[in-house]
Design goal:
Layout (H helix, E strand, L loop, with lengths): L3 E7 L8 E7 L7 E10 L2 H7 L10 E2 L3 E8 L10 E5 L14 E5 L3 E4 L5 H4 L3 H14 L7 E5 L4 H12 L3 E6 L5 H6 L4 E4 L4 H8 L4 E6 L6 H6 L1 E9 L14 H4 L5 E4 L9 H13 L6 E6 L3 H10 L5 E5 L1
Parallel strand pairs: 9-10, 9-12, 10-11, 12-13, 13-14, 15-16
Antiparallel strand pairs: 1-2, 1-4, 3-5, 3-7, 3-16, 5-6, 6-8
Helix pairs in contact: 3-4
């Protein structure tokens, strides 16, 4: 193993061009931490928030990246074998310590999940945070049950598409939104039952299909669309606030009685690697390998194309996950 590595560094908030490719020392793992040789990583809105200066608790310069996929290069505590395939996510990655935008990253062992797969690294790199967020939203956030109707607000995001895939596997009827009619085919291709073009009044379209409203709803756009998503949900139904594609997540002057429809419940989800059992990750990857499920990937970029990748993420035109391979 070399002493230096390529890494993508952000010195201060700025445009995509603020992401600089540099040579840095390879991190040294201490007991309780794992050094991972990164093979691929997915892009996340969280990293966009950090680059734009919207994230709290970040110090600069910083190697961004709240997730990484690769192999164990060193594990002083012996919790994982060298060469083991792993994913890592959250736990301060890319914010309080350097993250996955590098050829090597060093993370706490509790944020690492092992797996075994022959899938391409470009596919594997798309999975961790996307699957963790979708799975956690459906289980911890919404406690979905077979036969329910689910609304996914922000359906062509990577998490939105992964949520639809998991929901169909669990026997739910899925309604997903997109602002672009050109993306309708991408949603139907993953099994979405009803594609709704988001003109701001999704609730009316939902109730035309589900007169009482949907049983559960996942809000991925943010606070601008949350009131309409709540109106699309039945009495005793649940809305889970998980994402903020709009970069807006604060409800100003919140008055619960006036804001929440009568009897509709609002919850939220934000989790980490501990919410994604290794068996769920392995089962999902096995299903992808068997051809019984898919990983929604929009585009795969080379390491040197990070500026183009962030530009695409900020534009919001992707249909699924953006992935970078090292």
């Amino acid at each position: 193993m070399t002493d230096t590595m390529r890494a993508i560094v952000l010195d201060a908030p700025g445009p995509p061009e603020a992401l600089a490719l540099r040579e840095l020392p390879v991190p040294v793992a201490r007991p309780g931490w794992v050094l991972i040789e990164v093979k691929a990583f997915g892009l996340n809105r969280s990293e966009l928030h950090t680059r734009l200066g919207l994230a709290e608790g970040v110090t600069f310069p910083r190697v961004l990246g709240i997730e990484a996929t690769g192999v164990v290069a060193d594990c002083p505590g012996g919790e994982l074998a060298v060469g083991q395939q792993v994913v890592a996510m959250m736990g301060g990655m890319g914010r309080t310590f350097d993250g996955g935008y590098a050829e090597f990253t060093c993370v706490p062992v509790g944020q690492v999940i092992p797996f075994d797969s022959d899938l391409d690294w470009s596919v594997l790199g798309a999975v961790p945070e996307m699957l963790q967020t979708a799975y956690g939203s459906l289980t911890v956030g919404l406690d979905v049950q077979p036969g329910q109707a689910l609304l996914v607000r922000g359906g062509t995001s990577s998490v939105g598409m992964a949520t639809a895939i998991l929901a169909k596997q669990r026997g739910l009827t899925v309604l997903s939104t997109t602002r672009s009619p050109a993306k309708e085919g991408a949603l139907r291709a993953i099994g979405v039952d009803h594609v709704l073009i988001d003109d701001g009044d999704v609730a009316t379209a939902v109730r035309a299909l589900q007169p009482g409203g949907v049983d559960v709803a996942l809000e991925l756009v943010g606070t601008p669309t949350l009131p309409d998503t709540l109106r699309a949900t039945r009495v005793h139904g649940v809305v889970c606030f998980t994402g903020m594609l709009s970069n807006e997540w604060i409800v100003r002057d919140f008055y619960p009685t006036g804001y929440l429809p009568r009897g509709v419940r609002l919850t939220a989800y934000g989790g980490d690697a501990g919410d994604l059992p290794a068996t769920v990750l392995q089962g999902f990857l096995d299903a992808v390998a068997a051809g019984t499920t898919t990983v929604p990937i929009d585009h795969v970029y080379a390491f040197e194309e990070i500026v183009a990748a962030h530009t695409a993420m900020e534009a919001g035109t992707a249909k699924g996950k953006l992935v970078v391979v090292t």
